[in-house]
Design goal:
The complex is a heterodimer of chains A (357) and B (257). Chain A is mostly helical and 357 residues long. Chain A is 66% helix and 2% strand. By secondary structure, chain B is an alpha/beta fold. In chain B, strands 6-9-10-3-11-12 form a six-stranded mixed sheet, with helices on both faces. Chain B has a four-stranded antiparallel sheet with strand order 2-1-4-5, covered by helices on one side. In chain B, strands 7-8 form a two-stranded antiparallel ribbon. The chains are: A mainly alpha (357), B alpha/beta (257). At the A-B interface, helix 1, helix 9 and helix 10 of A face helix 2, strand 8, helix 4 and helix 6 of B.
Chain lengths: 357, 257
């Protein structure tokens, strides 16, 4: 209908030039990567990467491996959801890994059991009043930590106008300091059974998937999402259109902080302990997943679907390297190269768009 | 209410010692299209910036739609019904046509604070209606702005003013960066607005365009209005004479100037 009422008006329109969704490109990259590992596996070890080759297991796929791939990216993936909307708005968040550390420490302090094997909890942080609290207590405390940290990020960025890079870098250093100070660097352990249940088994994946769907819907179908894209695309235009840019930025960073807190709760529950060093480098992994998933570092472009596929690519690479019995050191080196490669690709795509394809 | 949509009295702007705009008395009637012409630095853009609240005037009065106004910013002006198409386009490149048309005033299907659900269907329909009304031809309204030509972008920016039944549209050199065909398209939209009785202030250097489109030509020179000409009673040479300073209308003569 649009075509019939609005002709070309002398301006050329080529339907073939309609963009292929970038998520499709990312998905193709994921498939190619899996195929590469599959082929290398057969060539080098006569074993399959994706399919079951053991006789004692009756299934088509190698579910053990697939589960590990998904499980190991689920927690950082939760952070990446927050980072996705931050980067779409034209910002960056370097503090999420440290927020994970600080939140894990503080929230775990409210999740401890009074007795371990009949003896008083040796890692107790607070007195008896904080022992055996219902699970809601550590969860609420944890979310509040993320909320405060994220809100501080957002307020700094929105009202002092300092670059997000600097504001969140400061939070990254300070939150890590807080995590270490909280218990003088000692780990906090022995959570209640109900807290330990949060991150049990495949629960982290479940939480990741639910949150991913939620944020996909939010970014696509709500005013919040539309304004996030608008700010990242052209901040002045957004302001001229009546969007309260400062308030929106505070909201974006606050939500990102809270998602980092969710990741912290799930992670400390899964590990049954909280340590000051938890979440180191998670911010970079989350940014990497996001960028690999096609979210543009210059803002305005990207989606949650892309980030989820980016997270899977990340997991496949790590699993694939383990599968090919390559050193963990190679994994890190290649991870770095992939991040840079994804940004180069993004820049190239931008230039092409700027030149009118 | 009178038929005057915009009036300025003694509108003045000084940047330090520079008198960028001095005592501008200007009247725009409903349905009227007026061009503002003048050399670079004559005070055209300064004049527009004071009206739309981009800058705060040094002195003078602005009466818009029968009320004295004092806009804090262009947003205020827009809310009051004064839409400006700026030289630098205020569009979000990564969003599509209807997203841009409704940016900041989205249609909502379900109210939920910042997480209110967008009504895409209603916005698309309203977009098609707005494009129809202005005669803007965009091949595919689902295309993002970055995939459009300069002319199409300008059309989207103009269509936005038409969507919201603005009381006054101001265009600051809308075709300066456009090709011949695209210029023609923008000019067609301006004619459509004229047909619908929407008042317009057009800043332009293009003599042919001005004589084609507007009813009245106001000439600025060195921060002052020097002529207020009826299009039918003047010609290009006459206007150039006013622009360059060869002539000044007697009512605008300033003692000692």
């Amino acid at each position: 209908m649009a075509e019939s009422t609005h002709g070309t008006g002398g301006l050329k329109y080529d339907p073939k030039k309609k963009a292929r969704p970038p998520e499709l490109n990312v998905f193709i990259a994921l498939v190619l990567l899996v195929v590469t590992f599959e082929v290398l596996g057969w060539l080098l070890y006569r074993d399959s990467f994706l399919f079951n080759t053991r006789d004692n297991v009756d299934s088509f796929f190698n579910w053990a491996r697939i589960n590990i791939i998904i499980l190991q990216v689920a927690i950082v993936g939760i952070i990446a959801l927050g980072v996705t909307q931050v980067i779409i708005s034209g910002g960056i968040d370097l503090s999420s890994g440290s927020i994970v550390g600080a939140t894990a420490m503080i929230s775990m302090s409210f999740a401890q059991t009074a007795l371990v094997n009949g003896n008083p909890n040796p890692k107790a942080i607070f007195g008896d009043w904080a022992m055996d609290l219902p699970v809601i207590a550590p969860v609420v405390v944890g979310l509040a930590c993320g909320l405060i940290a994220g809100a501080v990020n957002g307020l700094l960025i929105a009202y002092t106008r300092i670059p997000p890079f600097i504001a969140t870098l400061g939070m990254m250093v300070s939150a890590r300091g807080l995590a270490k100070w909280w218990s003088n660097g000692n780990p906090i352990s022995f959570p209640t059974d109900s807290f330990a249940a949060i991150g049990k088994g495949m629960n982290p994946v479940l939480i990741f998937v639910v949150l991913a769907i939620l944020f996909h819907l939010i970014l696509r179908y709500t005013v919040y999402g539309k304004h996030t894209y608008a700010i990242g695309s052209n901040e002045d235009a957004a302001r001229m259109s009546g969007i309260n840019v400062a308030r929106h930025k505070v909201l974006i960073y606050t939500i990102a902080g809270m998602l980092a807190a969710v990741a912290a709760i799930v992670l400390s529950s899964k590990n049954l302990t909280a340590q000051a060093g938890m979440g180191v480098m998670y911010e970079l992994d989350a940014i990497a997943m996001t960028v690999i998933g096609g979210v543009s570092l210059s803002g305005g472009r990207g989606s949650v679907i892309g980030t989820v596929i980016g997270a899977l690519i990340f997991g496949v690479i790590i699993s694939g390297f383990t599968f090919l019995k390559l050193d963990a050191y190679y994994q890190e080196m290649v991870k770095g190269a992939i991040i840079v490669g994804a940004v180069v690709l993004d820049q190239w795509r931008q230039r092409r768009a700027a030149l009118g394809r | 209410m009178s038929d005057i949509i915009l009036e300025t009295r003694d509108l003045t702007k000084h940047y330090g010692g520079v008198h960028a705009l001095e005592g501008a008395d200007f009247i725009l009637r409903k349905g009227e299209h007026v061009a503002i012409m003048g050399d670079n630095g004559a005070g055209k853009s300064t004049f527009v910036r004071q009206i739309t609240g981009v800058e705060q005037r040094t002195r003078g009065e602005i009466i818009f739609d029968g009320r004295p106004v004092d806009f804090d910013g262009p947003l205020d002006a827009r809310e009051a019904g004064m839409e400006t198409v700026f030289q630098t386009l205020a569009l979000a490149d990564h969003l599509d046509v209807s997203d841009n048309l409704f940016l900041g005033r989205e249609k909502i299907r379900f109210r939920l604070g910042p997480f209110s659900i967008l009504d895409y269907k209603a916005m698309h329909e309203a977009t098609l209606a707005a494009l129809e009304k202005t005669g803007v031809k965009i091949p595919n309204i689902h295309n993002t702005i970055e995939r459009m030509s300069g002319g199409q972008r300008q059309c989207v920016a103009i269509a936005r003013t038409a969507t919201f039944h603005s009381k006054l549209t101001i265009m600051d050199e809308p075709t300066a960066a456009l090709g011949v065909q695209e210029t023609a398209q923008v000019e067609n939209i301006i004619r459509t607005l004229k047909g619908q009785g929407e008042p317009l202030i057009l800043i332009s250097h293009n003599m042919r365009q001005v004589f084609d489109l507007v009813d009245r030509i106001v000439v600025f020179r060195r921060g002052r209005i020097v002529a207020d000409l009826n299009r039918d009673e003047t010609d290009g040479q006459d206007v150039v004479a006013y622009i360059t300073g060869a002539k000044t209308q007697p009512q605008f003569e300033v003692a000692g100037a």
